[in-house]
Every structure is written in structure tokens, then in C-alpha cells.
Amino acid sequence: MKTSTTSHTIEAAKKGDQTAFTSLLNQYWSEVYHFILKQTGNETDAEDITIETFSKAFSSIESYDNKFAFNTWLLTIAKNTHIDLIRKRRNLHFVDITDEEQQYNNIIDDSETIEDELIREQNLEIFKNYIRLLKPHYQEVIELRFFQELSYNEIASILNEPLNNVKIKIMRAKKLLAEIILKQIDQNFSI
């Protein structure tokens, strides 16, 4: 059952109040994270799914119906995000190992060619150019998390910030980066 304070926080978040978003993240992070951790058994997946859950929830908070408990709404988003991840991973498995002869015919040579390496480097440079469009503090967390592959705790220690602040900063950086990329794609296709 949600308290009156939570109701006011949700209403403030619906109006775009960043403090309200942070408050909701702090209040529900642990519940969502532990729910997903039980489902996945993997801390990294649980963190990623939890971040994605809050990103989706905050992006569509206007659609939240206060007839339902806020944590139930969040856990439903988390469950669906986890299901999406499972489906994506299932689609990556294409080798049929039931037929021993076919098994070897279905294996793809995934060694990187020179062309693959050039394309990867070009895509990485394009991606880094998008990152440069972010504010410096968002650039920094993206660099630490995705290029240096540091944990949230390590980033919090380096930045001397609370763990939840780092999590929400990374979530916001990812969301802003996605918006920048989509905007650039739209501009390129409208030319």
C-alpha cells in the first residue's frame, strides 16, 4: 500500500520533478533489484534490468494508474524487461545440436575479418561522437561504465558519490544518449 508521501512524489515525478524521480529510485531500487536478482541469479543482469526498468518507468510515468501499487507497476515492468532479455538471448541460439551431422554445418565462422574490424572501429567512432554531445558528467559515467567496464560501486568510489546517484546518472546518460542517436537518425533520414 502506498503512502500519501509516495503519492505526492509520484505526482511530482509526473510533472518532471527530478528530485521526485531520485526519491522514487532510492525508495524502490532495492525491491526491484532483489526481485530481478532472484529471477536471474546474475548480479550484472539484475543491475542492467533494474536500470532499464526505471528508465522505462520514468519515461512512461504519466501512464501509471494510481489504482495500483507503484511497486507492483515497477515489478511488472521489471518482469517484462527480463522476459524481453530472455527472448533476445534465445534468438541468438541457432545451432541445432540434436542432429550431430547438421551441428557442424550450422556453425558460423565468427572470426573477425579486416572489414568487420574497420566497420566496428567506424561505428565506435560514431558512437563516441554521440557521447561527446552529452554533458561532461554524463560522458564520464558512460566512459567509466561501458568503456572501462567498472562496477557501479567502483564508479561511486571514483566519483565520490552515493551509489544510487551513480545508478540514476548512468540511467539518465543512457536515456539521453538514446535520444541523441534517434534524433540524429531522424535528421539523416529526413535529408
Give a description of the structure.
The chain has 2 domains: 2-94, RNA polymerase sigma factor, region 2, helix turn helix motif (Rna Polymerase Sigma Factor, Chain: A), CATH 1.10.1740; 134-189, Arc Repressor Mutant, subunit A. With 191 residues, it is an all-alpha fold. The model has no long low-confidence stretch (mean pLDDT 80). It has helices spanning 4-14, 18-40, 43-59, 70-92, 100-105, 114-131, 136-147, 152-159, 163-190.
Question: What is the number of E strands?
Answer: 0
Q: Percent of residues in helical segments?
A: over 70%
Which superfamily, in CATH terms, is the homologous superfamily of the largest domain?
Answer: RNA polymerase sigma factor, region 2, helix turn helix motif
| CATH-assigned fold name of the largest domain | Rna Polymerase Sigma Factor, Chain: A
User: Secondary-structure element order, as H and E?
Assistant: HHHHHHHHH
CATH architecture of the largest domain: Orthogonal Bundle
What can be said about this structure in brief?
The chain has nine helices and no strands. It comes from Myroides odoratus.
